[in-house]
């Protein structure tokens, strides 16, 4: 694995899904660490939808990509996903400082100048270029232009509208805010328990088949503990409710007897 801010070496990744209400692990999907996190995402979501009929999904910024946004839109699933700022040189303005104006099909810079559409790349990115004569006299040239560049180029994906739908759902709706807040309280807790209590910090076997076996066993142990706790709470409160209900019935039959007729009111 060779990633920024990650240790270098031979590793595996475990893509895990949990139920947002009870934090039960509903799926484990081990892969090689050489695979980007976003690659197996849509397949996992589709499988979970077919099994459980989920309509919403919460994920971190690593899954904030245009193909995922388009895929979720096709599946009819709303995503609450954090916005990823993306890499940029230190001290330079990012793409987030520019605004896309759909009616005019231009990108507006912080100084109010337009970047016009030029071409669409094979990867599906629409490029918008500024004008050299405007950038040369711009007061924010040092913060905007990269080294040796004479103009600024901004790229938006052709599926960028689906990304904006995710942004609106995550930031502007109470349900989206609640789902994303719930994400760190569930999936992160499940990973922590597996690593600290179930030996999931290290791979015990070699090869994906062995890692799948370890993942399933660890997830099964975690789920059994959760189910045992739920069962205990259910039995306790169920007995309490039965006793309370019996007490209420008894008190009604006893305390509210009609003195005239000797029958319950």
UniProtKB/TrEMBL annotation:
Domain spans labelled Transposase DDE: 108-228
Transmembrane segments: 227-247
Keywords assigned: Membrane, Transmembrane, Transmembrane helix
A Pfam family per the record: DDE_Tnp_1_6
Superkingdom assignment: Bacteria
InterPro entries in the record: Tnp_DDE_dom
Cross-referenced PANTHER family: TRANSPOSASE (PTHR33408), TRANSPOSASE DDE DOMAIN-CONTAINING PROTEIN (PTHR33408:SF2)
Protein name: Transposase DDE domain-containing protein
Upper classification of the organism: Bacteria, Bacillati, Bacillota, Tissierellia, Dethiosulfatibacter
């Amino acid at each position: 694995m060779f990633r920024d801010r990650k240790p270098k070496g031979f590793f595996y990744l475990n893509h895990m899904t949990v139920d947002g209400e009870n934090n039960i692990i509903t799926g484990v999907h081990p892969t090689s660490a050489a695979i980007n996190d976003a690659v197996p995402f849509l397949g996992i979501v589709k499988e979970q939808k077919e099994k459980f009929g989920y309509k919403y999904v919460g994920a971190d910024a690593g899954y904030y990509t245009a193909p995922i946004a388009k895929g979720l839109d096709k599946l009819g699933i709303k995503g609450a996903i954090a916005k990823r700022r993306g890499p940029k040189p230190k001290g330079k303005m990012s793409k987030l400082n520019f605004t896309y104006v759909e009616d005019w099909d231009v990108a507006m810079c912080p100084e109010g100048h337009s970047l016009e559409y030029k071409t669409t790349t094979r990867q599906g990115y629409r490029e918008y270029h500024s004008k050299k004569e405007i950038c040369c006299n711009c007061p924010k040239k040092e913060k905007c232009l990269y080294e040796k560049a004479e103009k600024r180029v901004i790229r938006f994906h052709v599926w960028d509208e689906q990304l904006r739908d995710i942004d609106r759902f995550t930031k502007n709706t109470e349900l989206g805010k609640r789902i994303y807040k719930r994400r760190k309280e569930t999936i992160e807790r499940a990973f922590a328990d597996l690593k600290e209590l179930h030996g999931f910090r290290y791979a015990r076997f070699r090869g994906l088949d062995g890692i799948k076996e370890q993942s399933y066993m660890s997830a099964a142990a975690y789920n059994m503990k959760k189910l045992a706790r739920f069962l205990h709470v259910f039995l306790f409160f169920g007995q309490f409710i039965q006793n309370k209900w019996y007490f209420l019935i008894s008190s009604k039959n006893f305390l509210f007897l009609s003195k005239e007729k000797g029958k319950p009111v």
